[in-house]
Structure formats: C-alpha cells, structure tokens
Fold:
Amino acid sequence: MMTEEARFGVRLSYVIFPIDVRELRHILAKNGYELVPVSNIPPPPTRIRYSGDVARKGEITVSIESDSGEIGVVGRSLQDVRSAFEDLAKIVNSELDVDLYENVRFYWYVLHYKINSGKRPFNEIPKAENKDYVQRFGKVLEEDLSLSSIRLAPRDASPNQENWFDIAIEPDMENETIYHVGVVFRNSDKSKTEKFVRDLESNILKIIRTIEA
Structure:
C-alpha cells in the first residue's frame, strides 16, 4: 500500500478569516519553512484574500483558502500530514494566538493510495457488482458491461453536508495490476475524525480483501 498524496486541514468558523497571509508567511519563515514565491501582495493594513500554497518544509506544503476559511497541509503520507499539521497549529497558536483546533467548522482529509494485492482489479471489482443492473445497462448501451469501480458513501447523506466521506476504488489507469483508492473525508467532530483516520488504512485493506474473497 503506497500513499500518492495526503492532505489534511480544517475549515474554521469565522466571519473573517483570522490569519493574514503576510503574517503567516513571516512566522513560517521564522520557523524554518521555505516561502513559496507570491507576487502582488499589498502591504498592511490592507486585508487581502488569498488562495494557494504559502510555504514548504521538506515534502510538506502549507496552503490556505481565506474565502472558505481553510488552512491545511499537503504531504506524502497520512502520518506526515498529521504530524505537520500539529506543528503548524503550534506555530500559529504561539505566534498569532489563533488555535486551529478551536472554532472549527469541520476537519477534512483527501488521500490517494495505490495498492498492489497481486491480483488484477479489472477482474476483482466486478465481483461486487449487481449483475442484474449491469446487464440492464448493457442492454441500453448494447455492450457487454462490467463494473470498473466501487464508490462508498454514508447512506442517506449528501455530499453537500459537512459530515461526509467518499471512498472510490478503481483500477489504476497506468497499471492494471494496481488499485487506486481515493478518499475524501470531512467531519465536525474531532474524535470521530481521529477514529476514522486511525482505522482508515487497515479498513481499506479489509475492503480490498472483501472484494477479492
């Protein structure tokens, strides 16, 4: 199981985003981050909107979306981004007096994995299909069809809700012997978020094993 990319952050619940990008860049540079080049930032006290990357340290990138109130980190693994966000939160709290774990509207993760089980996903994923529906779809398209992906989401929930997750399992487009798994998760409850993430990677492997059984 290899992580391609991991993202973790929070959407804060403030009318006005409490972090000025100029101040954030300053404190990150002071704490060993390399600043991402940004042009046309006016001097204080003008308050500005900002969307994009701010600074990097190793393989970790810090980004913000001031309009939506989001701040997060991008890295190579789940553990890396969890640790990096903790570091970011400590810096922001001590330097700017903003607690990234308070007044949180929701926590969010976006993760992408590649998994090689030794079997071909194109052969394994169809085991989970509703054959009656696939045959009916085939009649519509006049083709012999099979399921090529699986998507899992909470029943009776909406993608527009704050508490939501989506797990997509499909063959990797570049290597048909590998599964690609994409995960989007968000939740307003910190303990539920921590539990979901703590169990996530082992649960994904359990789902793959269930498909292949």
The longest helix spans residues 190-212. The mean pLDDT is 94. Helices lie at 21-30, 78-96, 121-124, 131-141, 190-212. The radius of gyration is 21 Å.
